[in-house]
Amino acid sequence: MAFAVLGGIFSGVFLLRPQVVEISSGTLLKTPRVIEPFVLTSATGAPFTNADLANHWTLVFAGFTFCPDVCPTTLAELKAVQAKLGDDAAKVRILFLSVDPGRDTPEKIAGYLKFFSPDFLGATGDDAALETLGKNLGYVYAKVPGTSPDSYTMDHSTALILINPQGQVAGYLTPPFKPDAMAADLRKLVAQSN
User: Fold this and answer.
1) What is the pTM (predicted TM-score) of this model?
2) Torsion 95-100-104-105 (CA) sign
3) CB–CB of 63/71 below 8 Å?
4) DSSP calls for the chain
5) Cβ atoms within 10 A of the Cβ of 178, count?
6) What gap in Å lies between CA 80 and CA 18, rounded to an integer?
7) Are 108 and 143 in contact (CB under 8 A)?
8) Per residue in 119-155, pLDDT tens?
């Protein structure tokens, strides 16, 4: 009788524990990280806050519109991921976060994102807000002077920050980005959260 009870308890614990999702395109955190309250400005000019990250998965990419290579390439790959997600695309948002508030106005960001997808979101903030959020989300950036005051560039993280439907940092997707693998990983995460 005792063996039957222990066997039942063991089976219940083993079968009822939450399933761990494995992804091939990055790393999931063992414990999602809370994002401290923030306020940015969206590409539409409206406030963009923590509430905008809730109730869906979000991939955040920190970059800038004057970026010559990494940003347009990554956004093109994210467009491919969005297409490969099919019906699940509505459950995953792409957020382009500009770390160049000196040049990237909401209007500039909105125009830039139209080249990639009308569904992509955009936001930026002042340097203080971006630095605080960067420490919280885990991205870094730095202004690199050019030959004139307006010819500077921005060095920035290339990893994508994965935000879960609870609005927490759930992990990071890292280059080289492979749209097929990323879409498969995102489908798994969407399925687990349903």
Assistant:
1) 0.89
2) positive
3) yes
4) -HHHHHHHHHHHHHHHSPPPPP-SSEEEEEEEEEPPP-EEEETTSSEEEGGGGTTSEEEEEEE-TT-SSHHHHHHHHHHHHHHHHGGGGGGEEEEEEES-TTT--HHHHHHHHHTT-TT-EEEE--HHHHHHHHHHHT--EEEE--SSTT--EEEE--PEEEE-TTSEEEEEE-SSP-HHHHHHHHHHHHHHH-
5) 16
6) 31
7) no
8) 999 999 999 999 999 999 999 999 999 999 888 999 9
Write out pLDDT tens, residues 61-92. Answer: 999 999 999 999 999 999 999 999 999 999 99
The residue written with tokens 């498969």 in the block is 184
Q: What gap in Å lies between CA 141 and CA 158, rounded to an integer?
A: 10
Determine whether 112 is exposed, middle or buried from the number of CB atoms within 10 Å of its CB (0-12, 13-18, 19+). buried
Weakest mean pLDDT among 6-20, 154-168, 175-189: 6-20
